[in-house]
Amino acid sequence: MKVTLISGGVGGAKFALGLRQALQDQDASLSIIVNTGDDMWLTGVRVCPDLDSMMYALAGLNDAERGWGRAGESERVSAELKAYGIGWPWFTLGDLDLGTHLARTTLLREGLALSEATAQLCARWELGAQLIPATDDEVETWVETTAGNGTATMHFEEWWVRTRATAPVRRFLQRGAESASPAAGVVEAVAEADVVVLAPSNPVVSLGTVLGFPGAGGRAGVPGIAGIRQAVQRTAAPVVGVSPIIGGSPVRGMAAQCLEALGQPCSAEAVGLIYGSRGQGGLLDSWLVDTEDSGALPALEASGIAAEAVPLWMHNGDASRRLALDALSAAQRAAGH
Amino acid sequence: MKVTLISGGVGGAKFALGLRQALQDQDASLSIIVNTGDDMWLTGVRVCPDLDSMMYALAGLNDAERGWGRAGESERVSAELKAYGIGWPWFTLGDLDLGTHLARTTLLREGLALSEATAQLCARWELGAQLIPATDDEVETWVETTAGNGTATMHFEEWWVRTRATAPVRRFLQRGAESASPAAGVVEAVAEADVVVLAPSNPVVSLGTVLGFPGAGGRAGVPGIAGIRQAVQRTAAPVVGVSPIIGGSPVRGMAAQCLEALGQPCSAEAVGLIYGSRGQGGLLDSWLVDTEDSGALPALEASGIAAEAVPLWMHNGDASRRLALDALSAAQRAAGH
Questions:
Q1: Contact between chains at B106 and A100 (C-beta distance less than 8 A)
Q2: Region A285-297: what's the mean pLDDT?
Q3: How far apart are CA B331 and CA B308, in angstroms?
Q4: Residue A73 within a domain
Q5: A182 in a structural domain
Q6: What are phi and psi of A222, to 5 degrees?
Q7: For B102, which of A77, A103, A106 is closest by C-beta distance?
Q8: Domain-embedded: residue A321
């Protein structure tokens, strides 16, 4: 069985661990298409937060307590950069993490595509999954914020980490998205899959960068990378999504602010309906919401999405595995239709 | 009094410390023109070994015991790069040092010239001297070696560090030298100086990259950066050099192999004669050799160089200071002629 997960960083990585475990006794291969919209050039190196979160989690090297980055991390280099007044003093650039950025930057400068560099970096471990960046092109999410009387435009990571998503968003800009195309293997991974899963990731800036996400009430949406949404709409595989919102709040991160900036409500029901039914030109055959949100099922079902309420909290590895099994079962049922 | 030192890395830095101390009670300014021929791109960052050696020494952060790099250094990032199989496993890239490389690379990518980036990095400390790279252009020393039946061409640092200068040299290549020009301030620092000192640095690959160095017996020399040699030849200031060779051996490093590769003998006398008297189109008014090499004085004097034998071993800070005072005295005497 070929399973393809479309994912952002930390939240998606938790789910990916559960999915890998759920598949381990089966004859299955797992491909993970990862958001690259948070990528950036910082102090001369290419940083890919979501790819790294995914790689570290699958390699068992992530800092589970802190929730991001490498376990046993230090910041010796970062302290030097601060002393020189270079870079972003509020952005943690761990030493071990920096090793990854430097290795990647070296490969990119040698002419490798990001997907090739990613494959080479991942070859260091037995990850049990193939990581594919959504695009080899540089697509970066920037944020136009309203600050006092004027506006300020900053990289998504600056808005996210420095302002902690408090700077009011006028719109998200996806620089480079208009000319970006899917990385080698992305469309194939979706087209040839037996199951496609949308991870419980930020629907606007993680999955939205990959698949697009509409605005509402006069707000600009995000375009996504041309070709990936179409591949999801056309695949013969069932497509099941897992809600990143439980009871009106994102499980992790700042999806609420992102949805608000696009004029969209923050609920499992709303995100499911915006993703939409594949039968109606949307992305989903099936949508998993938390048991707390079972009230959303009738509206979702009415829109043509096979919705189910299951426990979504991934409070440990076993909960992640059970959620992944729920997603695979939902996909199987959707395929039976 | 304006003093300008032309220098390589570690050996020159030792002398620079002595010179700074010798000048501290005088109304004096110290400019140091530093070799950039060992510079390189490594794992996507610009490494400038001699500039860094000089900066760390003047900032009091150098590892005096090991003889190079930063004190209290670690190699966390380097270990990651090795695990990824990226870069040069035999080249130590310390974490603190890497902070400097990343800061520099960031500034270079922002469009600053190396001399501007160097000034910005050095502003972190009170160095008591202005560091100027010999050139803002990329001049890199590469080595064509004879290996078995064939030849191999490698960066100078690879020849120096990986082969420990054992790979037989066919010739040194100074890539980029033909189109390089002196960095802003270099020619001025020489022209406007009251004293110019050539540090006890490798005459071929350190000072030779800056000033040029001839080959002999059919061997190719090194061209140097056009304009700096002429500035030294023309300056109204006395020019005094300090021999890097004591009793037929370099004080530190592999000058013997470098001189041999150019068909030149390794002695304080030979290097002084090759630098030559300014009166005869050379570089020196005065040349300091070690007391052990006082036998060289007659030949040097006969060639028009005011040679003196003084203790050259810089076994501690005070010895470096006394040597610097000897150099300043020699300059004064040369100016009196």
A1: no
A2: 97
A3: 11
A4: no
A5: yes
A6: -120, 140
A7: A77
A8: yes
Mean pLDDT calculated for residue range B104-114: 96
* Predicted confidence (pLDDT) at residue B15 exceeds the cutoff of 80: yes
The confidence score (pLDDT) of residue A337 equals: 65
- A→B contacts (Cβ < 8 Å), by residue, are 43-45, 74, 76-81, 83-87, 95-96, 98-100, 102-103, 105-107, 109, 120-121, 124
pTM: 0.91
Share of chain A above pLDDT 90, in %: 85
Q: Is residue B205 part of a domain?
A: yes
N-term to C-term CA, chain A? 19
User: At a CB cut-off of 8 Å and minimum separation 6, what does A254 contact?
Assistant: A160, A164, A165, A202
Using CB atoms, pick whichever of A80, A120, A121 lies closest to residue B96.
Answer: A80
Check CB contact under 8 Å for A105 and B44. yes
B242: domain CATH number? Answer: 3.40.50.10680
Domain that holds residue A250: 2-37+136-142+171-336
Q: What is the ipTM of this complex?
A: 0.91
Chain B contact probe: residue of A43, A61, A82, A124 with most B CBs at under 10 A: A43
Question: Which residues from B are below 8 Å from A85, CB to CB?
Answer: 124
- Contact between B43 and A106 using a beta-carbon 8 Å cutoff: yes
Distance of residue B138 Cα from the nearest chain A Cα, in angstroms: 17
CB contact under 8 A, B102 and A86: yes
Residues of A in contact with B76 (CB under 8 A): 74, 76, 95-96, 99
Rounded Cα distance between B277 and B238, Å, is: 11
List, for residues A25-47, the tens digit of each pLDDT value: 899 999 999 999 999 999 999 99
pLDDT band of residue A336 (cuts 50, 70, 90) is: confident
More confident residue, B287 or B170: B287
User: How many domains does the structure of chain A reveal?
Assistant: 1
- The reply to whether residue A83 touches residue B99, judged by beta carbons under 8 angstroms, is yes
Query: Residue B205 pLDDT > 70, yes or no?
Result: yes
How far is residue B147's CA from residue B162's CA, in Å, rounded to a whole number? 14
- For residue A95, give every residue at least 6 positions away whose Cβ sits within 8 Å of its Cβ, in sequence order, or none: A73, A74, A75, A76, A77, A78, B76, B77, B80, B95
